[in-house]
Design brief:
This protein has about 130 residues and is mainly α. It is about 70% helix and about 5% strand.
Length: about 130
């Protein structure tokens, strides 16, 4: 951007922010509006500013779950006997067995979500 164009834009911005004073002189800057809305200012007064970083419990919990799942998968796949036993177990499941596995998976998911929300609430109430 050229210096001339930059100077033009600066002049235009200066015109936007200048206002006439009571004596009729130009060049005084008008006060800017409040930086934050009133509802936000009231909210900040209710709760003190956080001084410590927020702990992301869901990330910690899911990271541990995926690490444990990965470890179990590697452990199962390393030995041919364990691989064959797992394959036989999967192939032996009927509809009722798959329903039980699905119910257990759903229960584990709800447990993890509840655990992360409980830890979040406990951390929040401490400060």
């Amino acid at each position: 951007m050229s210096d001339e164009k930059n100077a033009e834009q600066t002049d235009k911005l200066g015109e936007l922010f200048t206002a006439e004073t009571d004596a009729g002189e130009t060049g005084a800057t008008a006060p800017l509006p409040e930086a934050e809305p009133a509802w936000l200012a009231g909210r900040q007064q209710q709760r003190p500013l956080r001084t410590t970083p927020r702990v992301r419990w869901a990330g910690i919990i899911w990271g541990l779950v995926f690490a444990a799942g990965g470890w179990c998968t590697v452990w199962t796949l390393l030995e041919p006997d364990r691989r064959a036993a797992f394959r036989n177990w999967i192939l032996s499941l009927d509809d009722g067995g798959w329903a039980i596995v699905g119910a257990l998976a759903l229960g584990a998911l709800l447990l993890l979500i509840g655990l992360s929300q409980g830890l979040k609430a406990a951390t929040r109430s401490r400060g």
